[in-house]
Amino acid sequence: MGESESLEVHQDDFAAVQQRLPDEEVLYDLAELYKIFGDTTRVKLLCILFEGEMCVQHLAQLLQVSQSAVSHQLRILKGARLVKYRRDGKTVYYTLADDHVREIIGCGMEHITE
Amino acid sequence: MGESESLEVHQDDFAAVQQRLPDEEVLYDLAELYKIFGDTTRVKLLCILFEGEMCVQHLAQLLQVSQSAVSHQLRILKGARLVKYRRDGKTVYYTLADDHVREIIGCGMEHITE
DNA sequence: TGAACACATGAACAGTTATTCATATGTTTG
DNA sequence: CAAACATATGAATAACTGTTCATGTGTTCA
Asked: Over chain B, what is the mean pLDDT?
């Protein structure tokens, strides 16, 4: 009896949640965004760029990974519009695209260091 | 010449950033956290639980995936302490663990819907 | 107690992903 | 123009990850 009541209540929630839930597409995009932050190399890249502009070879040095690996990951970050770049001669300097990235990283940091 | 100057400047940044950068371990944990959000099924689960408590079979229905798949993902969310659960008879109800999760989801949503 | 139900979990498989290696593109300088 | 340098990129491989299937655990009720 008590059980059937709580079941009804949750049936109601079920329908309500179904309506309030963001669109399939939005949820997909959200997961895609977090997926990008969900890799050590990329998170490190973003944290470094959090401090300011930096060129590819220095990024590779700081991360202790190959230049190629860094370029590949920067490509992904560019694709997600999380970083910008400018060319100065042979060198390419990367920066964070906007403050959203900072907020997202900050948010995660809070959870980690609670 | 102009180039060598900008190179020096970035050498300085290099050293400074190296010091200010969070510990390897922290960055690893940060990536691990985002990795969890970086999956459609899990993000959907979290968004649903954002609205309130819900049992496993209803979660499976809403997500249109098998009960097994949901349980496997809930296990991961439990491991990361992002959700809590309580048992009521045969049924297990899940909820978000705390408000951090809400903030992190909110942060990502802002970036998506800009 | 045993059948039915809700959920959890281990193993296996398929799809995805990050790195490496080789090479290409773009830029400067002699 | 050729050599040297910084970066980008395609292909291949190894490692990882999410789902499915089968089965196990825990609970209720007849």
From this structure: 88
Tokens of B91: 């049924």
Instruction: Output the pLDDT for position A12.
Output: 53
Residue nearest to nucleotide C9 (CA to C1'): B72
Residue ranges of E strands in A7-113: 54-55, 83-88, 91-96
**E strands in A1-114:** 54-55, 83-88, 91-96
Residue numbers in B 1-30, CB below 7 Å of strand D: none
Determine whether A86 is exposed, middle or buried from the number of CB atoms within 10 Å of its CB (0-12, 13-18, 19+): exposed
**Over the stretch A15-72, which tens digit does the pLDDT of each residue have?**
888 889 999 999 999 999 999 999 999 999 999 999 999 999 999 999 999 999 999 9
All structural domains of chain A: 23-112 (1.10.10.10)
Measured distance CA(A22)–CA(A20) in Å, rounded = 6
Instruction: Provide the CA B85 to C1' C10 distance, Å, integer.
Output: 22
User: What pLDDT, on a 0 to 100 scale, did the predictor assign at position B6?
Assistant: 39
The Cα B40–Cα A23 span in angstroms is 12
Q: Which nucleotides of D are covered by protein (CB under 7 A)?
A: 5-11, 17-23, 26-29
B100 pLDDT above the threshold of 90: no
